[in-house]
Design a protein that fits this description.
With about 260 residues, the chain is α/β, with parallel strands linked by helices. It is about 30% helix and about 20% strand. The termini are far apart.
Length: about 260
């Protein structure tokens, strides 16, 4: 059977209606396809992020990665990410708006099945937790080693990051999958324990998988932290989770639930 995909840079409406860039890939064919929004890590909208988008398309998902640093001008991913760091990162509210815009883009496509998941890595994992609590129309969320979900020192909160995501747990709107390395220090294992406690206390649907011999960013094939055995199993967990929660057609496309 013929297989193919389309992968391209598109323009979407993000926070406040701003036009921002996004990298988009989908299988060729009529679908219907579930959608996934890929939230990039702190190093930016880079080659590895685009590889993740294409990997999801290879597995039957329409996937899109909004360029969260799009407003900071052109340049290499490293240069643009440096600008973002110099400004203290991007505001949480802006990220939520950009992710919401990416979800609307996916649901507007004629081959959408109406179901949308999120996945994010590093700072993007934190953003997944935040968006899954702030947005009511997410169907499944995957947090890969998101640091900063817990903030013990209130002095670390700011105008751009006014609330610790863990404090929004009561509002979590969908099942959550967490992927963590036991050698990571951001978040360290004890913080992962505390996130689990909060999820249980609030009766949320979740599953966490923790990997010995893995630290931060162990999915990233272009980094020394890459751990092929753990990453391969982690991706299996991700796709099993999405198959469970995203494959069934939504009763009404785009409906809140």
């Amino acid at each position: 059977m013929y297989e193919g995909m389309l992968a391209e840079t598109v323009t979407i409406r993000g926070h406040n209606g701003d036009n921002i860039a996004a990298y988009y890939a989908r299988p060729l064919g009529a679908g219907p396809f579930p959608g996934v929004v890929v939230i990039h890590h702190m190093p930016g909208w880079d080659e590895w992020t685009r590889e993740v988008v294409r990997k999801l398309a290879q597995h039957g998902y329409a996937a899109i990665a909004p360029h969260l640093y799009s407003r900071l001008g052109a340049g290499s991913p490293d240069d643009v990410a440096a600008r973002a760091r110099a400004q203290g990162g991007v505001a949480d509210g802006q990220v939520v708006g950009d992710v919401d815009g990416a979800m609307q883009y996916l649901r507007a496509q004629p081959y959408s099945n109406g179901k949308i998941g999120l996945i994010g890595f590093c700072s993007g994992g934190r953003h997944v937790y935040l968006c899954a609590c702030r947005l009511s129309n997410v169907d499944a969320a995957v947090d890969c080693w998101g640091g900063g979900v817990i903030v013990d020192d209130p002095a670390q909160l700011s105008e751009k990051r006014p609330v610790a995501p863990i404090d929004l747990t009561p509002q979590l709107s969908c099942p959550l999958l967490g992927i963590f390395g036991n050698e990571d220090q951001f978040p360290p294992p004890e913080q992962v324990d505390r996130i689990e406690v909060a999820l249980r206390q609030h009766g949320k649907s979740y599953e966490f998988h923790r990997y010995d011999g893995a630290g931060h960013g162990f999915f990233a094939v272009d980094r020394p932290a890459y751990r092929p055995e753990q990453a391969t199993d982690g991706w299996r967990k991700v796709f099993a989770f999405y198959e469970k929660y995203l494959q069934a057609p939504a009763a009404t496309s785009g409906a809140d639930h």
